[in-house]
Amino acid sequence: MSMRQNIPLTLRPAFQRTLLNMVILAAIPINDVAAEDYFDPDTVERHSGQRANLDLSTFSRSGGQAAGVYNADVYLNDNFVGSKSIRFEPGAKGLQPLLMKADFMRWGVKENATPAFVKISPAQEVTNIAAIIPQAQTRFDLSQQRLNVSIPQEYVRHNAQGYVGPDEWDDGVNALFMNYGYSGANNWSDYRQGSDNNAYLNLRSGINLGAWRARNYTTYSHSQGDDKWNSINTYVQRDIKPWKSQLVLGESYTPSEVFDSFPFRGAQLYSDDNMQPESLRGFAPVVRGIAQSNAQVTIRQDGNIIWQAYVPPGPFAINDLYPTSASGDLEVVIKEANGSVRQFVQPFSAVPIMQREGRFKYAFTAGQYRSTGGSAKKPGFIQGTGIYGLPYSSTVYGGSILSGDYTSASVGVGKGLGLLGSISLDGTFANARLMEETHRGGSFRFQYAKDFAMSGTTFTLAGYRYSTSGYYDFNEANGYYANTLPPGFRGNPNNRNEVEQARREWRNWRYSHNRRSKSQLNVNQSLGDYGSLFLSAYQQQYWGVTEKERSLTLGYNTSFNAINYSFNYSYSQTPFYTNHDQIFSLAVQIPFDRFLPKSWLNFSGSTDNRDKTTGAVGLSGTALADNNLSYSVQQGYTNQGVGANGNASVNYKARFGEYQAGYNYSRNTRQLNYGATGGIVVHPYGVTLSQPLGDTMALVRAEDAEAVRVLNQTGVLTDGRGYAVVPNVTPYRRTSLSLDANSLGDNVDLLSDSQTVVPTQGAVALANYPTVSGAKMVVTLRGRQVPFGARASVANGETLSHGIVDDKQHVYLSGVPSAGVVKVNWKGGECQAPFTLGKAQFGVNSVTAQCR
């Protein structure tokens, strides 16, 4: 049960009469001769007509509230800067927070804001910020659990939107974890006896020690009696915070912005975009203008305000925009102090390589080429790349690879062309020695991107690359394709002989035919209420052959009367195989909620260029409160003698993993398939099972709070000890994690139901929720006339449970021990009431105690 309410710590809903009385009191007219809002206790009478025995001194002033610890969302000058459990003490103008200098600095106050602020140590408590920083103030909004901190702008750092300082980045707890994924199947055929079984297991393991991360990816496969273990890669990694970079030692891949990516074993240092504020990631133009007064500048994209602030008179430059897409018109409105308005439009587009003005992105790699395709060549190499954002929507980039039998250099430029979109042009020149022969050549690439806002057309990427006959990239020069299957392979992947033969033929073919040119295009077209179209196409040519490698996908999606329609066409062709594939498909999805909640009827059909036609009808949906369970049942038919076929599957997302099972059949075959995915985390507090893990995660710690839901996380609940793992958290960003107080058990309370984590890359961030375990009770106080509004408390270890006495001398307390003393105090008096609970401590206990 959450303490995130108007009463600190453990005042609970059982105390409804007190709250009702307070509502009644709030409706009584205020004495209008008072200098400030004031409640006169004389206005409250007992049913007998005599003056009430009250102690409402705490609540007699506007905003008055009992002191204690509250979990508050903190806003600095109306900008959210984090959540924190804060102790509040009574002050002249209501509750005052007890904060340290380090808190103000973390929220954005300059370390040298004022001479008085400089003299204070970071750990020193600041009880009156206005005495240290002129015109500064704090105000606690109890109803919103919001602490508003107001600091004059001259004393606040100017940070980009979404900025999270390195001092907030959390390397997390030391941990050992394993992510597993298992799938298997039993296959039966009318053409053979018994079953053919296969299985696959992947294990992603990791160790975190401080800022260091060690990772390994290993797989296991079983097919036709053949068992194979394979270690994909192993490496250690850590961030270099001052450089906003990552250091990798071991087996990994080079970046792909300038050169094609390839596997290596060695060391790599590269810029990490995730460590930049969100508003500085990717590309956005610098918006420049001139303000004639203290003007309000508003920037809109697609009708949405993406930036708004006030600027002083003179030229301004805005470089921390949050664009909602990679291109589109920016509408800039300058509203002067006298009300006059000026407006202009700044178009922009960005190809993937482009960087913001002044941003330098680099990568440096040194090591040995690591073949994942079976090639014996493992040359040493050094690679360096750099990308730099220039003014006027321009970017320059380049790099070089140096190896024993291979050298290459690349240089390029990207440019925003305003209304015309954006382009990039680059050239790469290589010198490779293959089979005792030297090959020299070049490769030239063009890319284009543009949004046509008026027509709803988006060219996400249009590109063309041409390579001379003597050009080989580093992968080709080192036999990357030596052990891979050819594109368009139609054989049986479980037949070892057939697979090995295809690999040999493809290897020989690729050594003889290096790439010549490649074109690609991706287009999305919005049709408003009539749906959307998309097109994805590419064509690749090789030297020495006339046949082309081609792929095209065209689709149309729309919805009418809540019914979804999807039409798709695909075409593929490879130069290695002479034939090609064409498939046309149609799918219709109809809501079935009227008969079965959260379900759909599905109809689909397809036909190809070999006259193969399929059709199917099915039912799919989700179930359970959190949609943990998804299911699908389908019956189909295929011509050409295949006949009827069908399948059924179910997927359950549990707190400790995800589980799948399915069955399908056709005319001559049957298959039972199954799978499980999940994670195991070993941490300083024990072992916790989880759903499949991402690279960065959060460990929820709410001791003794069993089966408590983590909000907005499907199927994530605490275990019997109060621990859970949130499997995916964004690194270097504030992430608020909240627990569902309504799912708490009877004998435990949360002192805070929300925590904010800011993990570094790969961290296991700790989200610690203080709890208090114990019984709940309503105490009837006897022996002394205790006034309405008196404060009561009981100690349970180091935790204090608080409550307020109502007009019947009842007080509700939670998290109390089986025996203890209730301490009651009011203005001018106090008493103590010993109590002992009976055996039944679940639910709310009713106790009468003598207060002396």
- Mean pLDDT score: 81
Count of DSSP helices? 5
- The fourth-level CATH homologous superfamily of the domain at 16-162 is PapC, N-terminal domain
Main sheet summary? 24 strands, antiparallel, barrel
* CATH-derived architecture of the domain at 16-162: Roll
**Helix/strand class:** mainly beta
CATH topology name of the domain at 16-162, in short, is Ubiquitin-like (UB roll)
Distance between the termini: 31 Å
Number of strands: 52
Query: Rg, please?
Result: 34 Å
Which CATH class of the domain at 16-162 is shown? Alpha Beta
Name the shape in a single word: globular
What is the percent of helical residues? under 10%
Strand content: over 45%
List unreliable stretches of 5+ residues. 1-40, 43-52
Keywords: Cell outer membrane, Fimbrium biogenesis, Membrane, Signal, Transmembrane, Transmembrane beta strand, Transport
Main location: membrane
Domain PapC-like C-terminal: 782-837
Pfam family, one: PapC_C
Relevant terms:
Immunoglobulin-like, disordered N terminus, 852 residues, Ubiquitin-like (UB roll), globular, 53% strand, 5-stranded mixed sheet, 5% helix, 24-stranded antiparallel beta barrel, mainly beta
